[in-house]
Amino acid sequence: MTRVQRLRGSVQDYAWGKPSSSNPLVKRIYDSQCEASSLPPSNLEKYAEIWLGTHPNGPSTLIDSNTTLKSYLTPSNDLPYLLKILSISKVLSIQSHPDSALAAQLHASNPSVYKTPCHKPEMAIALTPFSAMLGFRTLSSLYSNLQLYPEIKDIVGSKSWKDLRECYENTAGMDFDTRTIVSVSNFFTNYMSNYDKDSLGSSVCSKIISRINSKIDKTSLDDLLLKFHSQFPEDCGVLSPIFLNVLNLKPGESLYVPPNTPHAYISGEIIECMARSDNVIRCGLTGKFKDVEVLCGSLDYEGFEPRRERGVEGEGERIYRPAVQDFEVRTSTLTSDHTFPSVPSPVIFLCLEGSCKVVWDGGEVGVKFGESLFIEEGTVIEVKVEEEVGFVRAMRNVGGG
Ligand SMILES: [Zn+2]
């Protein structure tokens, strides 16, 4: 067996993906991998995700032996991570992923919804301008937004509304103390539980939307509410940017999604890496089942300003390393040849630009845009640049963090 093998991923055509007519990145990558496998190009209407890894819903194939990567690996050396590229044209559902303890508990009590007993940390790195929502806003940001959309009081009730105002006044909007966390938790739980009662939420939402429509100077938050309303008119998630942080990332910037943190990707093309797990608690902007009780009981309500991480510069690479063991991601753009030392993890390599030759002790393989490789743990590779080459490598977190 050779230490480096060519890989073909699986494509997903979810409704939020980019249309084929826009020639999205996911389509271009997947078609390049089809071509490397002597298969015809794909013919889907939407291209949402390409998956590289051993997830059963989208297994990758070793091109030269035409076997799945999963069957090649033993259970003890299976990949703990899944590498994806996403092409997003429509907002994804708002969701959170349980921490390990909650995931185990949910899986035990409801295995048909919570399919694995594992946590699902995830990281996104922007390849184009990328927008996302992540975590609850700070108290001052939340409070000032509520002043702009006071109709929400009719959904949450006057007690909740008053509680939150008192927290703001008592702490001058600065401090996320225990009382504030309880108050935001009650506020959000009332919002989620009352929204669908007798269409209360959607009628309040309609009022807000028509008021925004009549404004001459709309804010970026107004525009986002209009956009969500056009995509999911009846959904409780339309008003979510009022509560949740909205981030705009530039190419190369990344965000990490901690457990129990509500988030949704809004638009752009990204690299995503995650632990190989399926546990999603849905919160809004979806037609799928919403487990409101589990959701509201599990979220981290402490507001924060999310950090846009740019990774750490290494030798010929930029390292994006989260605070979990399951994975890290490294990106490289090379104009001259470079040797990468071995790492104590199997690696998935994906070329995102240009072309190169990957050389190891025992062989070499040409790689161009869109093509992917599986590299055995402990393999030194030399990348010989043919034209300026950009690529991403996913691996287990080898930094001990
Ligand atoms: Zn997620």
UniProtKB/TrEMBL annotation:
Occurrences of domain Phosphomannose isomerase type I helical insertion (ranges): 182-244
InterPro entries the record matches: Man6P_Isoase-1, Mannose-6-P_Isomerase, PMI_typeI_cat, PMI_typeI_hel, RmlC-like_jellyroll, RmlC_Cupin_sf
GO molecular function, one term: zinc ion binding
Cofactor note: Binds 1 zinc ion per subunit.
Pfam families: PMI_typeI_cat, PMI_typeI_hel
Active site: R282
Keyword Disulfide bond: no
UniProt binding sites for Zn(2+): Q95, H97, E122, H263
Domain Phosphomannose isomerase type I catalytic as annotated: residue spans: 5-138
Pathway(s) annotated for this protein in UniProt: Nucleotide-sugar biosynthesis; GDP-alpha-D-mannose biosynthesis; alpha-D-mannose 1-phosphate from D-fructose 6-phosphate: step 1/2
Keyword tags: Isomerase, Metal-binding, Zinc
An example Gene Ontology CC term for this record: cytosol
Enzyme class: isomerase
Biological-process GO terms, alphabetical: carbohydrate metabolic process; GDP-mannose biosynthetic process
Catalytic reaction list: D-mannose 6-phosphate = D-fructose 6-phosphate
Keyword set includes Isomerase: yes
EC number annotated for this UniProt entry: 5.3.1.8
Known cofactor(s): Zn(2+)
Family named by the database record: Belongs to the mannose-6-phosphate isomerase type 1 family.
Protein name: mannose-6-phosphate isomerase
Species lineage: Eukaryota, Sar, Stramenopiles, Ochrophyta, Bolidophyceae
